[in-house]
Every structure is written in C-alpha cells, then in structure tokens.
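Supplementary Methods. Inverse-folding protocol.

Structures were first reduced to a discrete structure-token string of length 228. This string, shown here, constituted the complete conditioning input.
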C-alpha cells in the first residue's frame, strides 16, 4: 500500500538554519505517530511539509504517492483537502456558531452536507451546543469543535499541532481519547506534535524525536504503554 507520506533525505534550509536536516520518514496508513522536540527542533516545518504548504530545499517528499511540488495549484488544493489540521489555539471563528465553524471547510468548497455536520456534532459530543458561539465553550469543547471541523472533509491525514497544550490534564485525556477514536472509527492517520510524553504513551504507535532539524530516533511505543 502507498504510505500516506514518505520523506526521503528532506532538508529545509532558511539561510544557514536547517529547519529539517536530512530527514527520512515514512508515515503508514492508519498509524498515530507522535512528533517530539524542543522549540526550534523543526516540528512546525515537518507539519508544513506534510500539509504540502512547505517544500524541501533538497530531498524528496511524496504525499499519497505524489510529489506536491509537481502538482498544479488546483491539484495541490485537492490533495490538501484530504489533510486536516488541528491547532493548539483552536483557530475557531468567534462570530460563527459551533455548527457554522464545523461546516466552514465545506462552505469554502461550496459544498453543503448538513447531515454529516450533524453526525460530527454528535460524534464529538456537542449536539446540545450546535448554536453556541466559541466564547461560550470550554477549551476542551473548543478543541472538539476544531476536530469536527477538521474531520468534515473526511481527511485521510490529520495533523495536530500541540492540540492539548492549552488544556488541563483531564481535558487532555478526553481529547486524546477522541483522537484515538477517530483513528479507530475512520481509519484516519494522525500526526501528533506534542511536548507531552504522556500523550505519546497514551495513543501513539511510534514517536519521532527531532533535534535541531534532525530525526534523532523513532521510538516504538509498546502497546502496554498505551491505555487503549
Ligand atoms: P518547532 O516547530 O519545533 O519549534 P520550527 O519548524 O518552527 O520548529 O523551526 C525550526 C527552525 O527553523 C528554527 O530554528 C526556526 O527559527 C527556523 N525557521 C522556521 N521557519 C522559518 C522561516 N520561515 N524563516 C526563517 N527561519 C525559520
Ligand atoms: P458513509 O455512511 O457516509 O458512507 P461511513 O459509513 O464510513 O460513511 O461513516 C459514517 C459516518 O461517519 C459518516 O456519515 C460521517 O459522519 C462519519 N465519517 C466517515 N468517514 C469519516 C472520516 N474519514 N472522517 C470523519 N468522519 C467520517
């Protein structure tokens, strides 16, 4: 099977800084892979590469078997629709309701799938909050909205950038459970950037350790270390 993403000797340079330094990494379909590293280690750059918005200075990237660099703008946009993003700061539109926020990616594609939006509202446990605004939600609820919004285009790949860093311990566990459920129920491949080792132990199959742009090691997470 074609891997979701394959990086071959990928270097991303900004002047003399190598944000990524000769990284080889294959992301398999249906896995949850953690990405760990200090500030400046290259985590955001790696997400940018996987989201096909950044390109290697040298080396090669295949996303779903194709090199995003070689795609037309239109084809790259289509590829990127199959990639969902979840952020630390939720990035919800404050003047739109929960339902409208979730439906937004569809709206931008001039699509409307109210049934899917209703199902995802239920899936993330926010059916009763559909008409509220983000300011009326807790942090965990906001992240649930953001996850539903990311899932509404049925992405094969979900990129999560520190999704629990703004949340307390209990809410963190709930959000990690939701991500694990998402993989189980929809087969979504998940990349989880985090500085929380507990998160890796809880739901990841593997963890990639970045140091100054280099992939230091890849740890297999023992199933026994995972709670589920
Ligand atoms: P992380 O997400 O792990 O904090 P980043 O991928 O943001 O790391 O950055 C890796 C390195 O690349 C850092 O040294 C950062 O300063 C540098 N870098 C990232 N993006 C740019 C850019 N657009 N211009 C210049 N330097 C950059
Ligand atoms: P459908 O009934 O549309 O063929 P499924 O039976 O695979 O889809 O899944 C049932 C519901 O789960 C869908 O209607 C949708 O709400 C949700 N769903 C399915 N696949 C995904 C996905 N990849 N990401 C997010 N939600 C999904």
């Amino acid at each position: 099977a074609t891997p979701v993403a394959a990086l071959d000797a990928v270097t991303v340079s900004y002047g003399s800084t190598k944000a990524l330094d000769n990284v080889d990494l294959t992301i398999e379909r249906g896995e949850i892979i953690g990405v760990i590293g200090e500030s400046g280690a290259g985590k955001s750059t790696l997400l940018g590469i996987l989201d096909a918005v950044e390109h290697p200075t040298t080396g090669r990237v295949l996303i779903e078997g194709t090199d995003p660099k070689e795609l037309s703008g239109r084809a790259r946009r289509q590829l990127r629709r199959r990639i969902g993003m979840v952020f630390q700061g939720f990035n919800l539109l404050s003047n739109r309701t929960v339902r409208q926020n979730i439906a937004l990616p569809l709206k931008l594609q001039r699509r409307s799938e109210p049934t899917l939006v209703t199902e995802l509202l239920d899936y993330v446990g926010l059916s009763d909050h559909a008409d509220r605004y983000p300011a009326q939600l807790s942090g965990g609820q906001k992240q649930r909205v953001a996850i539903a919004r990311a899932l509404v285009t049925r992405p094969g790949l979900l990129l999560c950038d520190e999704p629990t860093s703004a949340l307390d311990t209990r809410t963190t566990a709930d959000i990690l459970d939701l991500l694990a459920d998402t993989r189980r129920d929809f087969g979504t491949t998940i990349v989880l950037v985090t500085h929380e080792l507990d998160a890796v132990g809880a739901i990841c199959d593997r963890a990639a350790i970045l140091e100054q742009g280099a992939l230091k090691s890849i740890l297999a997470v023992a199933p026994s270390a995972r709670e589920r």
